[in-house]
Amino acid sequence: MRLPRLLSAVILSVGMAGCKASPPSNFEAKTVTFAKHHVFIGNKSQKNPLPNTPENWADGKEAFSHYCVACHGMDGQNTGVPFVDHISPPIPSLASEGVQRYTDGQLKWILDNGIWPSGMPGSKGTLSDDELWAIIIFLRHLPPAGSQGVPDMYTH
Amino acid sequence: MKTKFLLLLAIIGVVAAATFSTHMVRAQAAPRRIEVTAKRFAYDPGEITLKKGQPVVLVLKSADVAHGLRFRELNLNAKIDKGSAAELSFTPDKVGDYVGHCSVFCGSGHGEMTLTLHVVE
Predict the structure, then answer these.
(1) Of A70, A148, B26, B42, which is least surrounded by CB within 10 A?
(2) A112 in Cβ contact with A123 (< 8 Å)
(3) DSSP tag of B110
(4) Interface A:B, Cβ pairs < 8 A
(5) Which segments of A20-73 does DSSP mark as H helices, in order?
């Protein structure tokens, strides 16, 4: 009776050890980034139909604030997100070169479909095409890091 | 006697003309009012056919949470608070189909909440 319990405990411990959220190695990060940019994320050539105007930027900021801010912060640079250091793969700053290097079409693809198996969900149907394209204008002109404060949901 | 009769006729004529012309102006200017109910995640009706040049008022109500209705191409936007009606008044001046979207985030199907206007001659 004791042996199966002990065996279960060992198997469980080994299994759980595999679930540890450790940051990816440099090699892993580079390989996955390359694969995302060149293989997995499509729609490279689609252009943003919305012009870059202050109104569209403000629409994008508003649409971004509905739930993107939960992981990306109000500034798109993770400010005030309490779990940002405890998640793997890590949540990138949207101002980073790795994100900004995507074309507008690729960013739209990511917003539509998400990136599996990271925590990034797809928003097709949850936000309209207009809102998603406006978010891309916002992403291209992010406010300075920390300038927008902490998302409301983390201030209570 | 004849003068009095003519005067009476003239007065009746003026009154009738005034009444008729007012009626005509009103008939021309009175906008068509259409009630639209928003409910997660659709509008009822979901499609409306309008005549080009005919003034219209969309009377917007919500059956659940706050919603909005925005036609980007027509530069129209309204917020529909729960429990109160909002109105969008306009006169379509171009034939075509216009798709309006909910402009107040209302949940998981918000992005698919649309109302189509068919503007015809």
Answers:
(1) B26
(2) yes
(3) G
(4) 27
(5) 26-35, 54-67, 69-72
Return the number of other C-beta atoms located less than 10 Å from residue A133's C-beta.
Answer: 23
Among residues A93, A85, A80, the alpha carbon closest in space to that of A150 is found at A80
Tokens of B93: 């001046």
pLDDT digits (tens, 9 = 90+) for B6-54: 666 566 655 555 555 544 544 556 899 999 999 999 999 999 999 999 9
To which H or E segment does residue B121 belong? none
Contact A130 B112 (CB under 8 A): no
Q: Is the ipTM value over 0.90, yes or no? A: no
Strand, helix or coil for residue A80:
coil
C-alpha neighbours within 13 Å on the C-beta side of residue A68: 27
Pairing state of beta strands B42-44 and B47-51? unpaired
Predicted structure pTM score? 0.76
CA distance A76 to B37: 35
CB distance B108–A126 less than 8 Å? yes
| Cα A62 from Cα A60, distance rounded (Å) | 5
Q: What is the phi/psi pair of residue A83, to 5°?
A: -100, 15
